[in-house]
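Notes, p. 3: input format for complexes.
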Amino acid sequence: MRSFKLAIVGLTVIAFAAALGFRTTVESQDRPEARVDRVRRERFRHNGVVQDEEPPRSKAAPKNSRPMAPTAVEAPTGFDSLTNGHIEQGPDFGTINEDNVVPLRSYNDDRFVYEEVEGMDEGLGPTYNAQSCRECHQNIVTGGASQVTVQRTGRTDDGTFYESLGGSLIQSRATYRDLVELVADEDTTRTFRISPSTLGDGFVEAISNSTLLNISAAQPSNMRGNAVLVPVLEGNGDARIGRFGWKSQHGSLLSFAHDAYLNEMGITTPTLPEENTSSGTYVGYGSEYDPVEDPENDGVDAQAFTDFMRATKAPERGPITREALYGEQLFNQLNCNVCHVASITTAPAGTVINGGAFTVSPALGGKIIHPFSDFLLHDIGTGDGVPILPTPEYAITAMQMKTAPLWGLRTRSRLMHDGLTFTLNDAIMRHAGQALGSAQSYAALSNRQKVRLVAFLKSL
Ligand code: HEC
Ligand code: HEC
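Output follows (460 residues plus heme C):
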């Protein structure tokens, strides 16, 4: 049965390639996932255009005057499930149910959609990792991080990465018992990636491209971060500096929402209408496994997830003790703050970002945030070997990771991208490569100084 299916997919690949005038190489016949790979790569292509996302100029102002830059204020913080003002709070959350929820109406409605458990009728699977966004993003409140990890695998030959059949993301659950993706012996490039927080991500999205490029330019060359260009799926093919995901593989929350709905839950949308395979075998609509025609959702859910995330408050700081203040000085002396940037100001309200697809709202614009990240990629010796995509453009990202934002750090017991580090001391000692100097200086601190530095980290 299985080999029959594979043969059919193989034929489709050849027909598809022939139709496009591609050379049907032995490799493409051998690799039934080739078409899926190609579709994924084509969807994830940008035109190289990166807007600087400078704020709008006042009409009255002379042509060469500096853009308006209203005074920035602190972004609201809190683990309280209250809106940051981007959209209204809406009806009491406890009164919302499946029958009366109105997606896109309010924070509480959109939170309900983000928490909603999907089943096969809504398009869940056939391969998936969890039934709702909340399953992996909830701590302290909905939208937060969690201990849930996903698996990424592939193989690396002569320095070139090849994804596992069906993509580097393993879907560890399925709606049929024979469809769960298992890891092949030869796929020895293997990693876990833990679920990061999405709280405050609306502010992160509102950071202009030029701000991130300036941060990179100001870093010493041996520590400089890679500002990676990724497509805004809803933005006309334009590129943006990535900032979401462990590889900064997305620059817009709507793009991430579509991606996550498909890849974590198996639900297709007009933006990403092709169902995932099970290790390269087609199991979507028309096969015996998937009763729902694509796109399985009209795109409203992805917008609701996005509106919810955009309206979340940033993680709030814990008590700032004297010890923590001493520790912060050490943090800066050890150059931790070169990558873990303490303060960033979002673009002013009215700035058009995401390749023209989104205008920064008054609630998100001109806000000072304290993410303790530059959102850039670095090689600190922890790279997991899996690039954003297995294309030459992204090859360098295989051994780089995004600077983990340290806001909300005191709420996480599993550290680093793989969640395999248990203590802050161990997390720091895992830093090498571009962060080797910092790690060595840390190791040379007195015990008392180390305690202070950790006290600072525990206040985040
Ligand atoms: C099975 C667990 C799981 C589910 C379900 C899940 N996510 Fe995630 N999410 C992750 C992991 C793991 C990452 C990091 C992935 C990576 O970088 O490779 C992530 C990253 C993200 C990020 C980037 C956050 C940042 O600041 O870097 C966003 C945004 C996000 N998810 C949104 C969603 C939305 C919306 C949904 C529901 C459609 C969802 N996720 C469902 C596990 C999950
Ligand atoms: C060159 C850039 C760079 C420097 C310098 C740097 N870091 Fe990091 N840091 C990173 C990156 C990248 C990660 C994520 C690595 C991973 O997950 O594989 C990280 C992760 C962390 C984490 C884990 C956070 C989490 O949520 O899991 C902590 C804690 C941390 N860094 C603290 C520090 C401290 C303290 C210093 C100074 C002694 C420091 N870092 C210096 C880039 C840097």
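Confidence is low (pLDDT under 50) at residues 1-30.
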